[in-house]
């Protein structure tokens, strides 16, 4: 399979502080790739570098057929769904999805309307076009944000914590949608997430960042990595076991 995204020896950080160094990985076209790590490990920071919101302090990010992500270059070759959806509250759902088309194309109003409505049907929101964001449930908001991210027919989609704030049932439905989009409209998905159930359910591979080592701990199939004998991998992929051990610790006496 061809490569959709390449990252070479990337260093992440703020000011003089390095969060993660020597980040190297590739994402194959059509793959669902998850970025994992504990709190403060640099997951969201890495995403900012991948979409061009931050310039690499070292290393390279390359989007296939485009080069380094640079939002100043014009129409981006990828779509982004932000963690809370980031829909404009004063605009209808349809207008939110139509906005990238109005901004980056010269299509007529009727064509833009038709495309935006198609994108909403694609995510199961065909009947919600005229609703305001305040009228949407959490799951519907995430779906609308995905529709907007796909408005320009991007073949690379970045998702920031897509299931954050959702109940398990809605999370599973969103997982199904992400997997369906990946398989049916040939979109590559890179998602930052903390939901291991979602990772096991739909991710082809994952990358695990380690806060203490300030580096990548592992890259691979999450269903294989969770069976690793490495203590650090086992602790991350089996958090319940760690909690059970703590529950059996003796209570200190004074």
Question: What secondary-structure arrangement, pairings included, does this model have?
Answer:
Layout (H helix, E strand, L loop, with lengths): L2 E12 L2 E12 L3 E6 L5 H8 L7 E6 L15 E3 L11 H12 L4 H14 L15 H12 L6 E5 L7 H17 L3 E5 L3 H7 L2 E6 L4 E6 L1 H4 L5 H7 L1 H9 L7
Parallel strand pairs: 3-7, 3-8, 5-6, 6-7
Antiparallel strand pairs: 1-2, 1-4, 8-9
Helix pairs in contact: 2-3, 2-4, 3-4
Write down the overall mean pLDDT: 90
In what range is the share of β-strand residues?
Answer: 15-25%
The largest pleated sheet is described as: 6 strands, mixed
Radius of gyration: 19 Å
Q: How many separate domains? A: 2
Mind explaining what this structure looks like?
It is a single chain. It contains nine helices and nine strands. The chain is of the alpha/beta class and 254 residues long. The protein has two domains: 1-71 and 156-162 and 186-254, Rossmann fold (3-Layer(aba) Sandwich), CATH 3.40.50.300; 79-153, no CATH class. The strands form two sheets. A six-stranded mixed β-sheet has the order 5-6-7-3-8-9, sandwiched between helices. It has a three-stranded antiparallel β-sheet with strand order 2-1-4, covered by helices on one side. Mean pLDDT is 90; it is low at 243-249. Helix 2 (93-104) crosses helix 3 (109-122), helix 2 runs parallel beside helix 4 and helix 3 (109-122) packs across helix 4 (138-149). 35% of the residues lie in helices and 24% in strands.
